[in-house]
Automatic annotation (TrEMBL):
MF-aspect GO terms: catalytic activity
InterPro entries: His_Pase_superF_clade-1, His_PPase_superfam, PG/BPGM_mutase_AS, PGM-Related
Residues the entry annotates as binding substrate: 79
Lineage of producing organism: Bacteria, Pseudomonadati, Pseudomonadota, Betaproteobacteria, Burkholderiales
Family annotation (Pfam families): His_Phos_1
Name of this protein: Broad specificity phosphatase PhoE
């Protein structure tokens, strides 16, 4: 029977962004609003994020040619595109089948709570803040925004594309923290409790690598199995600082 999956999938969170830095500063100062002028999709990497992306690209480029990605898919958001291209620039273009942006890999949309800290949400939208606390982040959808379930729905479509077009290939996906976690939910067949436990345990480090290898002996017809989880050696091996900045407001306290 023909293999359904790629040989390998790497899922990477973008390098530290200017937005991550601004969010950390706003929350540390107990401010209501994150001080950043760009649209979320236009926020670039920070100077450190550029270093992280370069270290990541160096790590991928040092892999043997037959183990490097030959398909690169990335979120259209600037910080993800910059991270992906830092890797692509270290690969042999002749070996690449596809380098493409995919809007389904974009950040979770925050709707009316965009750029607000948890304090800002509680101050401006107290009823929404209470609803979010009650429902939980997996199902809560802010007006004009998305829940984790909404993100998972579009990622199911991405996996359909990958299994149709890139079976037997080596696929690198560059996106955002929630993208990494929601892919884990799908590929590891988790439920709400399992993925939220992982989320509570810590943020996904910037430019960390979570990867899956195809194991023909797993399951009835072979499947992808977890190989690396939030792997940061591409950074630490080069002395590049590791950051774990949040992408979205912290969960309300119950």
């Amino acid at each position: 029977m023909e293999q359904k999956w790629p040989q390998q999938i790497w899922i990477v969170r973008h390098g530290q962004s200017a937005g991550n830095v601004a969010r950390d500063a706003a929350e540390a100062a107990s401010q209501f609003l994150i001080d950043i002028a760009e649209r979320d999709m236009d926020v670039p990497l920070s100077a450190l994020g550029e270093q992280q992306a370069a270290a990541l690209g160096q790590w991928f480029g040092a892999l043997p040619p037959e183990q490097r990605p030959n398909v690169v898919l990335f979120s259209p958001y600037v910080r993800a595109r910059e991270t992906a291209l830092a890797v692509v620039n270290r690969l042999d273009r002749n070996d690449l089948l596809t380098v493409a942006t995919d809007e389904r890999l974009r950040e979770k949309e925050f709707g009316i709570v965009d750029r607000l800290t948890p304090l800002g949400i509680a101050d401006k939208f107290p009823e929404l803040h209470e609803q979010r606390r009650h429902v939980g982040k997996f199902y809560f959808r802010p007006p004009g925004g998305e829940s984790w379930c909404d993100v998972i729905l579009r990622l199911r479509s991405v996996l359909d594309t990958i299994t149709r077009e890139y079976r037997n290939e080596r696929v690198l996906i560059v996106g955002h923290q929630v993208i990494v976690n929601c892919f884990r939910y799908l590929l590891e067949r988790m439920d709400e409790d399992a993925i939220l436990a992982i989320d509570r345990a810590g943020d996904v480090p910037n430019c960390s690598v979570t990867s899956y290898r195809f194991d023909p002996a797993a399951g009835k017809r072979g499947k992808l199995v977890l190989d690396l989880e939030n792997f940061v050696a591409p950074l630490t091996d080069t002395g590049t600082p590791v950051t774990t900045s949040k992408d979205e407001p912290a969960a309300p306290k119950s």
